[in-house]
Each structure stands twice: as C-alpha cells, then as structure tokens.
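thread: overnight batch results

M.L. [08:02]
morning all. the overnight job finished for the chain we discussed friday. pasting input first so we're all looking at the same thing
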Amino acid sequence: MATIEARRRDGSRMTLDPTGLATLRTGLRGSLLLEGEAGYDEARTIWNAMIDRRPALIARCLGVADILAGLRFAREHELALSIKAGGHNIAGLAVTDGGLMLDLSLMRGVWVDPAARRARAQPGCLLGDVDRETQLHGLADRARLRFRHGSRRPDPGRWIRLHDPPLRLDQRQRAVDGRRDRRRAARARERDGERRPLLGPARRRRQLRGGHGHRLRAPPHRLLDGTQPRGRRYYWKSEYLPGIEKDMLAKMREHAGRITSPHSAVIVFAVDGALNRRPADHSAVGNRDAAVVLNITASWENPQDDAVHVEWARSAWRDMRRFSTGGTYVKFLTEEEGGDRIEAAYGDNFARLVEVKRAWDPENVFRMNKNIAPRG
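M.L. [08:03]
and the structure it wrote out:
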C-alpha cells in the first residue's frame, strides 16, 4: 500500500504511513476505502450535489467497535474527521476534504419496544427505516421530515419516543377542513358582524375521502422525496420569524416571482406551540420566540448555473432578513455560514455550550459541524 496524503485538523498536510493504514483496515469489520477504490465515490457522494469533497480515507462502519477504531486513528494522527449518517445536511458536513470520514450509513438497525413505545435506532437510519419497523406495531415517530434521503442522525443507542399512528386519510381531511372552516368563520364574523352563515365544504370533503378509510402505509411527508431528490444541487438561506406579517408575505410573493429554477421555492412553516412554552434554557437550541421558519430553497440541475441560483437565494434572504427574530435554524445553515450565524442559532445558550465543548471535546476533534469552538 502506497503512502496517503491527508489533512490534519488544523488544515496542515501530512503523510499517512502504510503500516498504520493496514492496521486500521484489518481492525475494521467494515471496509476502509481510499480514492480510486471500488465504492469510494459512492460513499463520498451525498444528497446535495453541490458538495464534492474527497476524504483521504472512508471507514464504512458496521458497528460501535468500528466507530471507536476510526475515532482512535483520527485522534492519534490528528486527522480531520467527519461523520456521515443520512448525509442530507445542506452544508455537506458529512464529508471532510482530505481527512477521515466515518461512514455510518450502513448501520440502519431499528429495535422497537412496543410496550414502552420506544425505538432504538442506529445512526445510519433514514426516517423510512424507523417507520417501516414501528408501523408493524401500530406506532409512529412524529418528528419526521425526510424519508429516503434524510436521517434523524440519532447517536448509537438513542431512544426515539413513539406515538399512535397517523390519522386515516378521511380523519386527516376532516381535521384540515375543520380548521379551515373555523378560520373562514372567524374572518366572516369580523367582516360582517356575525351576519354571514358558515358554509362548510361538506361536499368537497366527501369527494376527497372517497370512502377510503385505511391507515396510511407511508406518512405524507414522504412526498417530499419527489421534490428534493438526491443528486440535485441545493442552496438554502433561512431565518426564524416572530409570525406572519402582511409586508413579509408581499416580499415573499415578490421573490417567489423571481425564482430562477422550477425546483426552487420560498417556504414558511410553523414551529410555534410547545417550542414557545419551554424556558429559553430548556435545551441547547435557543430561539424560543420563533413562530415560523422562513426557508429560501434554491434547487437546480446544471453546475454551470450555480451563480445565478445562489444569488437569487441570497438576494431574497438579504431583503427578507428584516422580518427575522435574529435567530436561525442551525441545520439550515449553508457551507459558508459560521461565526455570528452559529451564535444566532443558539441564542443565549451559546456561552453555556462553549463550556460544554471545553469540558467534553477540548481538542475540538469533532469540528466538522457548525462548530462551537472550546474557547479559553
């Protein structure tokens, strides 16, 4: 085996000794991949095609022992380290350039305890993996967004709280229509002083139900896979909002009208409710004044068009940032966003997280993330 050029955590270059590489390779139950070997390009490729980094080494872990062996090797050689689970982070944090990537995507086991309503999921699990196993017991994990290309990225041994299964299609539609009817009635009463009767869309509800009352085999969130397929190019800009304002909606329509790709979108979705009822220091993520997430999502196919679509997203974000709470969602931060944007994601909890980092990772081995450096 020839010597391998690699990158240290501090960015400097180094040469890895063939003997050490051979020892690592024989100590893994999974495979160790080098550039040019079969499976290397597949392993380093993730959901966002904007990310094109080349690790010096890829350890395809099959268990906790493999993870620990890779981590020891990275520590001993001060290698840059990244960890791939589902591989859907917009900034491509799963893939280091020139370092060691621990690829956990093959670790997809799920164990369900139906009596306790808990599931234990390995770190490579996609949300669809969890649903497939929990549905056998009539249970579901409510915290889901992506299925085929996304992952909750649980730590080894993390427990996921399970709930009753989703509503049937007819129950879902009745709930949606009921909320819509109540909103329309409230607006009508405001306009006409209680003079207008409530006319609910009962016929439309019957047509939508169509007599189908079976439980969902796959939650409707799975439809997102068709709109955000693996291998497309993605760039996002995001902010937390305190609510929906008329001026914000006008700006949203304006920038939606300037979209440069049929795959792009300006999205708002609600996060208020339980989030706002907890104290600010309840958990690491701050911004408990947020009611809505604004996500400006550029998506396109051709690498030659990168500059046009990235600038559309940035321009819309610069114009709409005035409506922000000042906070943002850390997992929506793009590759170039760091520093003040990371602090904005954690708010007043940032200083406490620096203390935690200093206690548990003082050498900043785990830095291929939206990093909180162990200062001081």
